[in-house]
Design brief:
Layout (H helix, E strand, L loop, with lengths): L24 H20 L2 H16 L4 E5 L1 H18 L6 E5 L4 H4 L9 H10 L7 E5 L6 H13 L2 E6 L5 H5 L2 E4 L14 H19 L17 H15 L3 H10 L4 H10 L3 H10 L4 H4 L1
Parallel strand pairs: 1-2, 1-3, 3-4, 4-5
Helix pairs in contact: 1-8, 2-8, 3-8, 5-6, 9-10, 9-11, 10-11, 11-12
C-alpha cells in the first residue's frame, strides 16, 4: 500500500523549528543553518550509489547517449540548471545533458497547476526528444512519487534505458522502478513540507556530483582544471589563459600564443605546450586518446 502524503519524511514536522516564528532573526537563521548542515552528511551516506550512477552516465556518454533529467517544480528546475551549466563549463554538446520539467518551459519560471500529476506527460516529453536505449534517465522528486516523473521512468525502462531515481524519502515508488536509487534522507524541513529547502539542497549536491563526476571521467578535467571550458565571453577567455598557465607553468605570452594557434581550444593549447607539438598534432593526439590530456603526454 502506498503511503499517504502525511507519512512521508519530507512532509513531517521538524521539532527543531516548531517555534521558529517566535525567534529572533539570528536565532531563526541559526535553526535553518543547523538543519542545512545535515544535508551533506546525508549525501555522504549514499556516495557508493552516486558512484554507480556516475559510472553509468559515463558509459552512456561513451555509447553516444544522453543524460536526461526529469522532474517537477524545484526538482525539475534543478535538473535544468545542472544541464544548462554543462556546455560552458565542460565544452559538452548542448544535447548531451537535458533537463525536462513538468509543464514545459513555462514551469521554469512559475508553477503550472497539476502538471506534475500528468503520468502520460513524462512519457510524451521523452518521446518528443526521441529517447533511446543508449540514454540514461534520472528521475528527480523529493517525494519519490511524482506521476510525471514516474511516467517518464517507466517509459525509459521499457526502452532498455538505465534509470536512476533521486528522492528524499525511503521506499519510494520511484526507487522501486530505478536501476540505481539515490535516496538522500535529509529529514523534515524547517518549514513543514517545503522541499525546496533541505531536499532541494540535497538534490543540487547530488546533481553536481553526477555531471561533474561523469565529465571528469570523460576527460573534461585535467588535474582540477576545467580544460574544456568554452570561451563565450571576456571572463572565460581570461579563464582559459589562466588554466593553460596553471596546467603547463608557462608564461602568459606563451599561453596566449598557443591559445591563438589552437583556435581558442584550451585542451589543444595545453598539449601543444606540454609536448612541444603544433596545433594539428595536438588535436590529433587528443582525438586518438578520446580527449584525455594525461594520455597525450
Amino acid at each position: 500500500m502506498s503511503l499517504s502524503l502525511q507519512q512521508f519524511i519530507t512532509e513531517s514536522r521538524n521539532s527543531a523549528s516548531a517555534n521558529i516564528d517566535t525567534l529572533s532573526t539570528l536565532d531563526m537563521l541559526t535553526v535553518i543553518n543547523n538543519e542545512d548542515k545535515k544535508v551533506a552528511i546525508a549525501v555522504e551516506t549514499i556516495l557508493p550509489a552516486i558512484a554507480q550512477a556516475v559510472d553509468a552516465i559515463k558509459q552512456a556518454f561513451e555509447k553516444g547517449g544522453r543524460l536526461i533529467y526529469c522532474g517537477a517544480g524545484t526538482s525539475g528546475r534543478l535538473g535544468i540548471l545542472d544541464a544548462s551549466e554543462c556546455p560552458p563549463t565542460f565544452g559538452s554538446p548542448a544535447e548531451q545533458v537535458i533537463g525536462l520539467i513538468a509543464g514545459g518551459k513555462t514551469a521554469i519560471l512559475k508553477a503550472v497547476e497539476n502538471a506534475e500529476d500528468n503520468l502520460a506527460a513524462g512519457e510524451l516529453d521523452l518521446k518528443n526528444i526521441q529517447v533511446n536505449a543508449n540514454d540514461i534517465i534520472v528521475g528527480i522528486a523529493a517525494s519519490g512519487r511524482t506521476p510525471y516523473v514516474i511516467g517518464a521512468m517507466r517509459y525509459a525502462k521499457s526502452l532498455g534505458c538505465d534509470v536512476v531515481s533521486l528522492c528524499c524519502n525511503d521506499n519510494s515508488e520511484m526507487a522501486a522502478i530505478a536501476d540505481i536509487a539515490l535516496d538522500v534522507i535529509v529529514g523534515p524541513e524547517v518549514v513543514t513540507g517545503s522541499s525546496r529547502l533541505k531536499a532541494g539542497t540535497a538534490q543540487k549536491l547530488v546533481l553536481n556530483m553526477l555531471t561533474t563526476g561523469s565529465m571528469i571521467k570523460s576527460g573534461k578535467v585535467f588535474g582540477n582544471l576545467m580544460v574544456d571550458v568554452q570561451a563565450t565571453n571576456a571572463k572565460l577567455i581570461e579563464r582559459q589563459k589562466k588554466i593553460i598557465m596553471e596546467a603547463t607553468d608557462c608564461s602568459r605570452e606563451e599561453a596566449e600564443t598557443a591559445l591563438n594557434e589552437s583556435g581558442n581550444h584550451c585542451k589543444t593549447a595545453i598539449v601543444m605546450i606540454l609536448t612541444g607539438v603544433d596545433a594539428k598534432q595536438a588535436k590529433g593526439s587528443l582525438q586518438q586518446h578520446k580527449g584525455f590530456i594525461r594520455q597525450c603526454i
